[in-house]
Amino acid sequence: MSEYDLKNIENSLAQIEKAMERLSPPPLEYPDFESNNAFVWKVSPDHLQPVLKVSKINLELLVGIDRARDILLENTIQFSEGFSANNALLWGSRGMGKSSLIKAIHQEIIGRGLSLKIVELQREDLPSVSKLLNILRGSPERFLLFCDDLSFSHDDQHYKSLKAVLDGGLEGRPENVLFYATSNRRHLMPRDMIENEKSSSINPSEAVEEKVSLSDRFGLWLGFHPCTQDEYLEMIIRYCDQYGVSKELDFIKSQAIEWQATRGARSGRVAWQFFVDLAAKKGVKIGL
């Protein structure tokens, strides 16, 4: 065999080796769980990205959701202390503090000296969740897996990946992983989509059951409903107290009511948006 032929074989082998590396990427780098309490799951490549500064709100500032707060806090404390706990679906009105409550409870747990890591997972990344669970399964830490604004549309197959989190297949859900999700929909899909399934399927009951039963896999269902005007105003007053903004109650009340009227809704989000504007006009800087 000539030197030229040997050179061609070496080049071919090198190309095959590179192709194999692309097909079988190196193992995922194990994240530093000791130095960070919050992570975001990223894909392409798959990895856990630490969150150095978590967007959060103090638990005592969340008004009008006392029952949901107490139930979810107790459930999370049980889990962080090593006991069993239920996956939770927080559903209901927009802007009423569903995702804020989850982040606030995580911070409350950390403040109590308990160990709990939070990992945010995007809905569109659900197909990769089995890889994430394998990483978390091998850690001695306990993890709160959080998916915000979870919902499914027609022909959306992502819900099947979610079953891996809630049920876990043959291996089962990792004992050290708890899943919390927020959604505007109790059954994670539009009502008209459920009606379409009933009218167009060969076996309507089975078609609907497969998707609707997904929400039944959550042990806790916590509903969030529109706040009253008194609760809306109380939120703003608490923000003023927390951030040292002077309170002229009659002025704040009239301006806050006008503010929510222009938006056609009352919610915790609208109360915060009004307070951000109020604080700036009062010359007070707040961290967003």
Describe it.
It is a single chain. This protein has 288 residues and is α/β, with parallel strands linked by helices. The chain folds into two domains: 38-224, P-loop containing nucleotide triphosphate hydrolases (Rossmann fold), CATH 3.40.50; 229-281. The protein contains ten helices and seven strands. It has helices at 3-23, 66-80, 98-111, 129-137, 158-166, 191-200, 204-216, 229-243, 249-263, 268-281, and strands at 38-42, 47-50, 88-92, 117-120, 143-147, 177-183, 220-224. Strands 2-1-4-5-6-3-7 form a seven-stranded mixed beta sheet. Helix 4 links the parallel strand 4 (117-120) and strand 5 (143-147). The chain is elongated. The mean pLDDT is 83.
Brief rundown of the structure:
The chain is an alpha/beta fold.
Spell out the blueprint of helices and strands.
Layout: H1 3-23, E1 38-42, E2 47-50, H2 66-80, E3 88-92, H3 98-111, E4 117-120, H4 129-137, E5 143-147, H5 158-166, E6 177-183, H6 191-200, H7 204-216, E7 220-224, H8 229-243, H9 249-263, H10 268-281
Parallel strand pairs: 1-4, 3-6, 3-7, 4-5, 5-6
Antiparallel strand pairs: 1-2
Helix pairs in contact: 2-3, 6-7, 8-9, 8-10
